[in-house]
Amino acid sequence: MIGLLGRVLGPDYARPLRLHVTALVVYSVLQAVAFALLVPVLRALLSGDTSAAWQWLSILAVVVVATAAAYYVQAQLGYRVGMALSRAVHHRTGDHLAALPLGWFTGEKVGRVARLSSQGVVDIMGVPAHLLQPVVSAIVTPATVVAILAVFDWRLAAASLLTVPVLILVYRWAGDLIAASDHAVDAAGAEAAARVVEYAQTQAVLRAHGRARDGFAHLDAALSEQAHAGRAQLNRAVPGRAAFALTVQVAVTAVLTVGTTLALGGNVDVAELIALLVLVIRFAEPLVVAADLGGALRVARNSLSRIDELLRTPTMPEPATALDGHPDNGSIALERVSFGYDSDRPVLHDVSLHVPPHTMTALVGASGSGKTTITRLVARFHDVTSGTVKVGGSDVREQTTEQLMAQLSLVFQEVYLFDGTIADNIRTGRPEATDAEVEAAGRLARVDEIIDRLPDGYQTRVGEGGTRLSGGERQRIALARAILKDAPIVLLDEATSALDPANEVAIQDALTALTTHKTLLVIAHRLQTVRAADQIIVLDQGRIAEYGTHDQLMAAGGRYAAFWHERQRTSGWRLSTTAIPTSAAAGTAGT
Q: Cα–Cα distance between 177 and 239 in angstroms, integer?
């Protein structure tokens, strides 16, 4: 456990941990020595040598004071390491999560991270403060006792030593019983955590269907499974703990029997036997304490193991140093790129395309054709299976994250806003921006129209995830954030999908203006956005079916022309307010 704790803490906390463990060892040895000094004290008292007894009592007093001092030191160090552990876990996991590939963040893993960062941290904070001392004492104190017993009577030492393999086997067997169900408990806990978050996030949907009061079946099932897994683990743990406690008592009884036999045979005097039996009891006491804390130790060790596993998860490979020089003026290129989220299901097949600087390229295609995947490969949320993605003329794998992201502004269809003000969310694009620059970006993205009807203006809080705003309002703020960042390349995934037609035209004009000094790669289905593009890439099942300008593709009469005609045919659809005659309505209802 100590090695595992050291890996989780990291090298910055290696010295405090070593000091803590050293203090624990010193305390455990002094504790055993203090009990060992009872042997000469009792021997002198029972033989009537009070002078020798006082000398030994004086030595015992010094050792007891030293033991108390060692206990205080190790307790203080344990508390400090426990506090450091909380900070280290949050900081290290946060930094590591930021470097993991986006594809790692599945629903199940997000739930597990939430559990580790909350209950998991609570579980392990007590390790250095409360649990490490019994663990070290359970090893060091009995070992010291056996060594001291060997000085006084090797037969009692041998008898005590012979019980150790049996105790170890039973302790491991008891731990294996708990471990057998531990994975189920952890999986159930992670699932329950994920479902709680889901329940909170989907309140609008649940209430719209009248399900908020009746409960959420998925959450109820997850909580029931968590309770079932916990009961199953408890049922497994009780027999193991009882068996270990019984084994300790049997071991002590066996050693006591050996000592009594030696005393009855005249090989050990009564005074010495009494003192030695005190040592034998002290041999067993740390083991009993460790057994009582076995469940807490197992939980803490498992949480440490899971955090260690998370920290060992391979991150996205990154060069040690940034590329020399500066990228060119914002070009994007995919060269024979193939990629799949699962190895057996490729999404892109041998895709090659070039986006010149200061142009707008639109990606068009059916759902699942690979449009969003291309933008995420450009942002290096994943690495390609084969081929090369270049941004600014250089392979994205040869650029540091900071160098790559400095060239990109991203606005995706699913917009997330932080629980802060509108100004704070826009300023995320460039934290050092002035209020005037924030407002200028807001005007360009038509956020000023939102501000005009809010009493607190740019200081209005948006709620967690932006829940106090509509979808179109969130998209406009996300656009303002991208505009404020002022990166040479802007990636937009259906960035105007939640806007009304009037605002869509206004923002489309803003996007068109951006192409004078920026490169735009846009996923769009809106006719206005597509037609304004300098280049249109038509994707079909992960391959490029067509590419060219609007006029070129219309003249070709292929997939794009069919898409355009279909959109034009449906673009005039609207809800009619004309009353439907009763007879017509009845006839319609019957068809």
A: 9
pTM for the full predicted model: 0.65
Q: Rounded to an integer, what distance in angstroms lies between the CA atom of residue 75 and that of residue 69?
A: 10
pLDDT in tens, 35-70: 888 778 877 887 778 888 899 899 999 999 999 999
Domain with CATH 3.40.50.300 in the chain: 332-571
Q: What is the mean pLDDT of residues 8-31?
A: 86
Question: Nearest CA to 340 among 298, 397, 386?
Answer: 386
User: Residues spanned by CATH 1.20.1560.10 within the chain?
Assistant: 2-312
Q: What six digits make up the tokens of 162?
A: 């012979």
Exposed, middle or buried: residue 572 (CB in 10 Å: 0-12, 13-18, 19+)?
exposed
Fold of the CATH domain 332-571: Rossmann fold (3.40.50)
Check if the beta carbon of residue 288 is closer than 8 Å to that of residue 158. Answer: no
* Cα dihedral 521, 523, 528, 531 in deg (nearest 10): 60
- Which residue intervals of 266-421 are DSSP H helices? 270-292, 294-312, 371-378, 401-405
Number of Cβ within 10 Å of residue 156's Cβ equals 25
Average pLDDT over residues 273-287: 68
CATH fold of the domain at 2-312: ABC transporter transmembrane region fold (1.20.1560)
428 and 444 Cβ atoms separated by less than 8 Å = no
Q: 378-418 pLDDT, tens per residue?
A: 999 889 999 999 999 899 998 888 888 889 988 877 778 88
Residue 375 in contact with residue 296, Cβ under 8 Å? no
pLDDT the model gives residue 588: 39
Sign of CA dihedral 465, 468, 471, 475: negative
Q: Which helix (H) or strand (E) holds 339?
A: strand 332-339
pLDDT level of residue 375 (50, 70, 90 thresholds): very high
pLDDT at 590: 38
Question: Which residue did the predictor score with more confidence, 361 or 15?
Answer: 361
Partners of 342 in the beta sheet? 345
